[in-house]
Amino acid sequence: FANKKFHLNCTSGNLTVSFSENVQYHVTHVSVEDGTLTVSNMVDGNHAKERIEIQTDNGYVEETPWAVANLTCQAAKKEDTMYACRSSHSKCLNVTHGEIFMGYRCNCSSGFQGNPYVKDGCEGIAIGTGCGLGSILIALCVSIFINKWKNGIQKRIRRAHFKKNQGLLLEQLISDESATNKTKIFSLEELEKATNNFDATRVLGRGGHGTVYKGILSDQQVVAIKKSKIVEQTEIDQFINEVAILSQIIHRNVVKLFGCCLESEVPLLVYEFIANGTLHDLLHIDVTAKCLLSWDDRIRIAVEAAGALAYLHSAAAIPIFHRDVKSSNILLDSSFASKVSDFGASRSLSLDETHVVTIVQGTFGYLDPEYYHTGQLTEKSDVYSFGVILVELLTRKKPIFINDLGAKQNLSHYFVEGLQEGAIMEIMDPQVVKEANPEEVHDICSLAEACLRLKGRDRPTMKEADMRLQFMRTKRLRKCKILPASDEEIEPLLCIKVGNSDVVNDGNSTSKGISCCYSLEQELSSSVTLPR
């Protein structure tokens, strides 16, 4: 200190300065760079940069800056041991107040900052900034490297999944398709975005083989995405089999496949979104929709499903046996048209094959007993399962249901016993009894009984079943004068046959003992108000 007034005292951890004999101030901050002290009154604790009056030879000086010693820089540098500017990057400043010389103090050289009064106390600003920027740059580079490393690992994992999931084989299988019917191989990233990372709120349904999610692609197309539970290679082969089969099929009553993804641990299927769920749900769960499932609806659904299965058996490029025909694999679109789905268990045959020996797969209640005992899969195995669906449509009972005694019963056996005992009308769904005439019920029951025969050779083919159903439907439509007897133009009408009991037509009025014919527009407009 250049003046005794600036003598700092360190007592009991407090740094103080006395500007007069009676008053001490607590030093709260020392600015080496500005050469100033910030002090607070030790009595009331108020902080301030105090006005300091120091008496010199020339009078009083207010707000005196401090100095290290009452020497010029030139004189101070000569006194090597006492020279205060110790840092190699420091400089000496002569301190004046107005025209009054106060002494010298030290400051860091331009481009440096810190404490000039200690060795190596002044550090380069550029170095510090450079170190800071360097650290940020290094951290950024490390972050980019880690992300690229993680992305590289993810790409390798996805590529490994793609190979494990027979992606190369699938690419070959679908490479010959036309551009308009090209099955797309989606990236996992696309489907994660489409399903909001497979959010639970997007789940449409869960089954034994996996979960189906509702997805919205980047072009705003709504799709259903099937995520399998499979992890075994044999099941992955089945999945690829389903993709290969669906990619060959173009039929209005078969669910349309858009593509698949093979980059995840379990493969994903992307197919058209079907708005109204499954036939199983409509028959057995959504009881409020009974009025929507008229007798004509049931015949139409049976005709559409039979036509799709007949196409698979005989009209496709390679004969295909579905092997898991059931009401939960028949979907209903926005207009309640049938769509056969889920070809994971299907098998395709070469043209010279009549059957194939496989591990028995299917669903109890629909499973062909001959296939179950022999393991020989033929087209008649699908026929048996279709027969069960016909009985479901007639009785609105599940394939395995609880009877009046509280015991489980097989629907096929129950139906055949009813036929043999002549009590078929007693086991029909009441709505069928109301809307269908006995001749129509007899025709459908006769076809269902033929499909359910124990020996496959005694059953009709799917083509024969399809033709019989189409004949029944055409006959019914002509009775309602919807179809012309000759080559007249067919009017777009839907027929609802009414029996001897009241039947709801439009949700408000009833008719008795008549046949009612509605235009397509009337049917659609009235169905808007009905529960789905």
TrEMBL record:
Top-level taxonomic group: Eukaryota
Gene3D superfamilies listed in its UniProt record: Phosphorylase Kinase, domain 1 (3.30.200.20), Transferase(Phosphotransferase) domain 1 (1.10.510.10)
InterPro entries per the UniProt record, alphabetical: Kinase-like_dom_sf, Prot_kinase_dom, Protein_kinase_ATP_BS, Ser/Thr_kinase_AS, WAK-like
Membrane topology label: Single-pass type I membrane protein
A GO cellular-component term linked to this record: plasma membrane
GO molecular function, one term: ATP binding
CDD domains, alphabetized: STKc_IRAK
Domain called Protein kinase: residue spans: 198-472
Keywords per UniProt: ATP-binding, Kinase, Membrane, Nucleotide-binding, Serine/threonine-protein kinase, Signal, Transferase, Transmembrane, Transmembrane helix
Subcellular location: Membrane
GO biological process, any: cell surface receptor signaling pathway
Binding site for ATP: K227
Transmembrane feature ranges: 125-146
Predominant location: membrane
Protein name per the record: Protein kinase domain-containing protein
Organism: Aegilops tauschii subsp. strangulata (Goatgrass)
